[in-house]
Write the structure tokens for this entry.
Amino acid sequence: MPIRFFNTYSREVEELEPRDPAARPIRIYTCGPTVYSRAHIGNFRAYIFEDLLQRHLELRGYKVHRVMNITDVDDKTIRGAREAGIPLGKFTAQFKEAFFEDGQMLRIKRADEFPAATDQRYIDRMIEMIGALISRGLAYQADDKSVYYRINRFPNYGKLAHFDLTQLQSTGRVKHDEYDKEHIGDFALWKAWDEEDGDVKWDSPWGPGRPGWHIECSAMATALLGDQIDIHCGGVDNIFPHHEAEIAQSEGVTGKKFVRYWLHCAHLLVDGQKMSKSLGNFYTLPNLLEKGYTGREIRYALMRVHYRAPLNFTLEGMEESRQSLARIDEWLQRLREVAEKENLQPASAVDGLRRGERSTPNPPPPWTGSAVANAQRPTQKFEEALDDDLNISAALGFLFETIRETNRAMDENDLDAASAGAWLDWWKRINTVLDLEMEAEIVVPPEVAQLAKERENARREKNWKRSDELRDEISALGWEVRDTKDGQKLTRRGAA
Ligand code: AMP
Ligand code: ZN
């Protein structure tokens, strides 16, 4: 069955164009974080959905080339740096680092490239694109010296968001807009420098200034992936104006269709409202780690609902996720025990299993085994559910159905070692998408354990300075220490 996605542009479920998966990678662009503060787990819902997308395409044999941008210059980053009294680059570097740490903790596959908006290479590209748009009459410099996109001149403007231009109202947030812009919906491509920008500025044919957020993505996407990309993702809040603007800019310059499939994930909610910085109803990853949850539990909690369905975040939901993972862990443990049971296998076959070989060169598919004869081919069902617009809820449903069936068979001593081994192989395959397996037990090196002990003493004596120093020393050895209600917890940095 072909892979299908709901395309925001057409508002229809469309088949992924069939082609030789190995011929050329699927080019995916994903809007990344604005690094003015630590990302919250709502942001990570979007990144986990994109991770699932990439991993499923890879499971199905496609090569993927994915770019995720880092927005490291905008009003918020500039304001943050000014308030902290440090240069913009230094201010954003800490949040970039935090973003990568959190992503690793959540087992999100790294994109192939993480271009940053302030990289001169991309600034040059942005300036080039803005120049092209002006020469085509699609952009103009206003009296405030900023350059704006002339949305009336782009016939498809509003197509992605299914938006009627006449409905556009001023949000009252755009500086000077009533005076300088031709149309209330015209958006800034180049923002003329003003005092609040301090030393954040680049030269351009239109005077010193900085790029608008939308042109950053058009420039980085086309610079790294070419004029036409396969899949572009983001959260639903990116549809308008951000992605609408990206289309107008990119197609305005290249004259070619920018994106084939637009995929947007619904929001992570808290009490029915979007989790967001501005509402203050957010958790960061460290907030949840402090509560004792692990990266993989949070990954599961953010992944388990279909990406187009809003997901309400609750701590009860975290507990459910913990229980679901415990069921998977126990199941795997039981399967391993059965797979290694010698009395069900000739000794030579068991040796083979230990060496990681199967008892027969081509074991029968697990669903043909007697005990699970009635389990309706969950193997295909799992992957077909994901083919169907990444229906992870259905896929997980099949996984738990399989767990129930095979557990029952094991209860009745009716699952032989070869079948158990085949189920473990199946898990290995689907876990390339899920990445939910428990990490092997962590062995803390003695020097780290010693420092942790000293830190425990320092904290008991309320010597916070020493405690912080010891945290840094532990960190320098590649470990992270967290204080939980059950005392200190050590993890390898970036591990779950
Ligand atoms: P931002 O840093 O605000 O540009 O957001 C980065 C990404 O996170 C974008 O793709 C947003 O659409 C997405 N996002 C922000 N808040 C949420 C949320 N509550 N749930 C899901 N995605 C979100
Ligand atoms: Zn973007």
